[in-house]
Amino acid sequence: MLSPATPDDLDDLAAFLRTADLTVAALAEPAVHLWLERDDAGAVGATTGFELGGEHALVRSVAVRPDRRGAGDGLRLARFALDRAADAGAHQAWLFSRRSGGFWQKLGFAATTTDALATALPDAHQVRLFRATGQLDREVAWQRPLPPSDNFAA
């Protein structure tokens, strides 16, 4: 069951995201909304979230432990983040993904430019980090409209 990440979860969350090769910057910032699932032993098994920037949301931290992949958890987690972002007032969802474009296309995302993403979310922590490190030009950006009250049920 997904639960909101708390300050006590941040070390475990960051370690989990590093194993998934995902960005761990600014996990504790107020604009970043994160959820996680722990297994019976207390280990993080899945995460999801977004960073809100006005009417735009940067989807981030969607990851499933390898032994749980292939069962639809990734789609469930992504839909959860999209629903929560819409609930928070976002009308457009964005994300960076170099390896999982096909996955995001299943959810209606289309390729866009990193410049478009950075213009929509100039203050997003991941955008600022990627600009500062020169990584922005190596990223692949995706976007989709996010109408209010969108129901992502398959």
UniProtKB/TrEMBL annotation:
Q: Which PROSITE patterns match?
A: GNAT
The EC number(s) attached to this protein equal 2.3.-.-
Q: Which GO molecular-function terms appear in the entry?
A: acyltransferase activity
Q: Which residues form the N-acetyltransferase domain?
A: 1-128
Taxonomy, superkingdom: Bacteria
| Pfam families the record matches | Acetyltransf_1 (PF00583)
Q: What is this protein called?
A: GNAT family N-acetyltransferase
Source organism (scientific name): Promicromonospora aerolata
